[in-house]
């Protein structure tokens, strides 16, 4: 057997060589295992076995063989294969150590070193590594290196907000166009980026359509990442409907890139916000796919986790929201969003005081981020109706006290609370800050220095505010400062004279001499044309020609007022001038002397105990309305007027028209004529 060993090994090596050239690494691995049975510590056989396992995707097994044969497979021999296995197993830090510990830095190790630095997001070192590779190597992989270099520049622009330098790369491939578009998105040049993506799409279709084996589905799958970036630009531009439609089209293609699916799902969740939460719950599952954490950058993963916490808050999952936000805060203690999400959740639970306390603790622990936190605290105080406390919180933000926006907000809030003194104090502090700033910048300069536009604007607003609230004495210094900066400002001079008129009339007279004469202020305006113009509130009527008599009347009786004719009052329809009106007609019916009230149960009194239709004997005698003492009722329709003009006269307001009964009879006759049949 020992004699047959060398010959058998030679045949096996020939088999390994042939399989390697054909790319049949599984069959080559079988031959290598037979060689290792003959010589288990054969360095070449072990090295070839590691390569075959890597080609077959068995990175974990290959790394195991390397670690178990460290004495034979030294770092000089197997450094690249070991680092590559660690890289593919997402052990990036270990791969970096393996590369750095190698005694000789080959081109393969330098290529892998650039990839490792990119995954670690060390973009500056990565950029230097690829530049060195492009400068010192000449082979068929130059285009791939340029593509990787442009990807590094795009990452710097997107995640580190670094203005990319022009590398002079010729954008001949769709990968280079795509990376250039990503760099433009990082700079905020969205329209230019969209044009680059459209160009990348065209180049991609052209290059893939040349291959007859590539189907339309394969082309659409390759274009998915380009379309996803187009949808992102649409979303940034506010075209959310178009972006959402394109996102859903990509999801329907079911691309194999879990990173792309996770990003698209996250962007759809941000569009939905607190609406369509059921769709967001479905999409959030795509962000939890296996391997997503190795495909995306740290900031992308962090954004997805933030949106998960917000979605939990919108879906009333308070415990889940607190858990996610607490985890995010432990990972990034100085980040604002986790504590803001926690405060928002507390506000949804009506625990505003606890939310303000949480924000205050964070502001004390992280002074660098205190400004944003205090703005949120002030907003919560305003929502609770504590405007004064909100003003105190805003005034505690020293770096924003002098900003025009902050001054305007504080003055508005103090005015709402009718605290004019505090509003004036805000103006004073802001103006003093700009005066001190100007003194620091103009140190040692004795000549007159004009004030900045912001400073002058604050002074003018302060003066106008004081004048509006009757503080003319306090406005004088501000107005004098403004007039000093611009002596030709007539409006400011007029305000200054008005203010001095209450304090020092003599000073007001002196200043009034600086006002321009009326000749210089006269405007060449056609008053008649202006009054008769369309839209004028007053239009002067053209006076007609007056006769001599009319002219004398206008001159002599201009002050005499014309007497207005009184209109005759309307009389009732049944008014009879022969009848004296009822003196109590202006009183309500209940207050009149002859009012007896409504008759209740009249029909019941008429019903007797005898046969149907019979009446009780003597019922007319018991009727009090027929006695002489009671006032007479209204006359029957069509009857004559009253018999005598005594106190028993029927009031005209209670008389019915004379023709009422006749019209009623005519209507009844018409109905009888029109009826069919007879009696």
TrEMBL record:
Question: Which residue windows are transmembrane per the record?
Answer: none
Q: Which organism is it from?
A: Sakesphorus luctuosus
Q: Where in the cell is it found?
A: Cytoplasm; Endoplasmic reticulum
Name all Signal recognition particle SRP72 subunit RNA-binding domain ranges: 541-597
Query: What are the TPR repeat spans here?
Result: 224-257
Q: Which InterPro entries match?
A: Signal_recog_part_SRP72_RNA-bd, SRP72, SRP72_TPR-like, TPR-like_helical_dom_sf, TPR_rpt
Q: Where is the composition biased (Basic and acidic residues)?
A: 573-594
User: What's a single GO MF annotation on this record?
Assistant: 7S RNA binding
SUPFAM superfamilies given in the database record: TPR-like (SSF48452)
User: GO terms for CC?
Assistant: endoplasmic reticulum; signal recognition particle, endoplasmic reticulum targeting
- The answer, when asked if Transferase is one of the entry's keywords, is no
Q: Which GO terms describe its biological process?
A: SRP-dependent cotranslational protein targeting to membrane
Q: Which PROSITE patterns match?
A: TPR
Keywords (alphabetical) are: Coiled coil, Cytoplasm, Endoplasmic reticulum, Repeat, Ribonucleoprotein, Signal recognition particle, TPR repeat
Primary location: cytoplasm
Give the protein name, as stated in the record: Signal recognition particle subunit SRP72
Query: Which residues are in coiled coils?
Result: 92-147
Pfam families for the chain: SRP72, SRP_TPR_like, TPR_8
Domain of life where this protein originates: Eukaryota
State the residue spans of region: Disordered.
541-679
User: Does the record's keyword annotation contain Endoplasmic reticulum?
Assistant: yes
The record's annotation in SMART domains points to: TPR
Q: Where is the composition biased (Basic residues)?
A: 561-571, 663-679
Q: Where is the composition biased (Low complexity)?
A: 625-642
Q: Which family does it belong to?
A: Belongs to the SRP72 family.
């Amino acid at each position: 057997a020992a004699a047959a060993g060398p010959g058998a090994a030679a045949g096996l090596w020939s088999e390994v060589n042939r399989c390697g050239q054909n790319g049949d690494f599984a069959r080559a691995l079988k031959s290598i295992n037979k060689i290792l049975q003959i010589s288990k510590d054969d360095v070449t056989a072990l090295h070839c076995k590691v390569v075959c396992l890597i080609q077959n995707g068995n990175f974990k097994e290959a790394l195991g063989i390397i670690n178990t044969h460290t004495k034979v497979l030294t770092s000089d021999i197997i450094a690249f294969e070991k680092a590559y296995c660690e890289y593919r197993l997402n052990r990036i830090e270990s791969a970096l150590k393996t590369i750095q510990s190698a005694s000789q830095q080959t081109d393969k190790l330098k290529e892998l070193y650039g990839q490792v630095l990119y995954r670690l997001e060390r973009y500056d070192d990565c950029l230097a590594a690829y530049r060195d590779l492009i400068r010192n190597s000449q082979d068929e992989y130059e285009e791939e290196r340029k593509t990787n270099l442009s990807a590094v520049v795009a990452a710097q622009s997107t995640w580190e907000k670094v203005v990319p330098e022009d590398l002079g790369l010729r954008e001949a491939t769709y990968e280079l166009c795509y990376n250039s578009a990503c760099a433009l998105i990082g700079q905020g040049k969205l329209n230019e980026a969209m044009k680059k993506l459209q160009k990348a799409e065209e180049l991609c279709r052209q290059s893939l359509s040349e291959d007859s084996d590539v189907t339309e589905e394969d082309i659409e799958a390759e274009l998915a990442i380009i379309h996803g970036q187009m949808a992102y630009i649409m979303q940034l531009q506010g075209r959310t409907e178009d972006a959402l439609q394109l996102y859903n089209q990509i999801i329907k293609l079911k691309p194999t890139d879990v990173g792309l699916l996770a990003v698209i799902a996250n962007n759809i969740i941000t569009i939905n916000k607190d609406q369509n939460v059921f769709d967001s719950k479905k999409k959030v599952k795509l962000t939890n796919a296996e391997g997503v954490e190795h495909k995306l950058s740290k900031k992308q993963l962090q954004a997805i986790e933030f949106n998960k916490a917000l979605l939990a808050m919108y879906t009333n999952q308070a415990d889940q929201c607190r858990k996610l936000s607490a985890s995010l805060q432990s990972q990034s203690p100085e980040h604002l969003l986790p504590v803001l999400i926690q405060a928002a959740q507390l506000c949804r639970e009506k625990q505003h005081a606890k939310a303000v306390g949480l924000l205050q603790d964070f502001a004390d622990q992280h002074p660098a981020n205190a400004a944003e936190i205090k703005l949120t605290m002030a907003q919560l105080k305003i929502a609770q109706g504590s405007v004064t406390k909100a003003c105190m919180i805003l005034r505690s933000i020293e770096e924003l006290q002098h900003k025009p926006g902050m001054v305007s907000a504080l003055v508005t809030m103090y005015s709402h609370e009718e605290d004019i003194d505090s509003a004036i104090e805000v103006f004073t502090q802001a103006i003093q800050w700009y005066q001190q700033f100007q003194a620091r910048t103009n140190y040692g300069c004795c000549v007159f220095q004009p004030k900045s536009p912001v400073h002058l604007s604050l002074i003018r607003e302060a003066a106008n505010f004081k004048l509006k609230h009757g503080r003319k004495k306090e406005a004088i210094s501000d107005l004098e400062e403004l007039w000093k900066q611009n002596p030709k400002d007539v409006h400011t001079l007029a305000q200054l004279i008005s203010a001095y008129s209450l304090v020092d009339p003599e000073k007001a007279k002196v200043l009034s001499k600086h006002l321009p004469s009326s000749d210089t202020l006269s405007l060449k305006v056609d008053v008649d044309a202006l009054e008769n113009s369309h839209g004028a509130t007053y239009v002067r009527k053209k006076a007609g020609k007056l006769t001599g008599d009319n002219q004398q009347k206008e001159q002599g009786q201009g002050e005499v007022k014309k007497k207005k004719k009184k209109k005759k009052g309307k009389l009732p329809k049944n008014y009879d001038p022969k009848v004296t009106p009822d003196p109590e007609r202006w009183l309500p019916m209940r207050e009149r002397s002859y009012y007896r009230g409504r008759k209740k149960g009249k029909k019941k009194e008429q019903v007797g105990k005898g046969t149907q239709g019979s009446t009780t004997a003597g019922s007319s005698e018991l009727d009090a309305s027929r006695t002489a003492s009671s006032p007479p009722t209204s006359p029957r329709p069509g009857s004559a007027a009253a018999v005598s003009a005594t106190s028993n006269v029927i009031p005209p307001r209670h008389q019915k028209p004379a023709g009422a009964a006749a019209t009623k009879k005519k209507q009844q006759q018409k109905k009888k004529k029109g009826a069919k049949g007879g009696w």
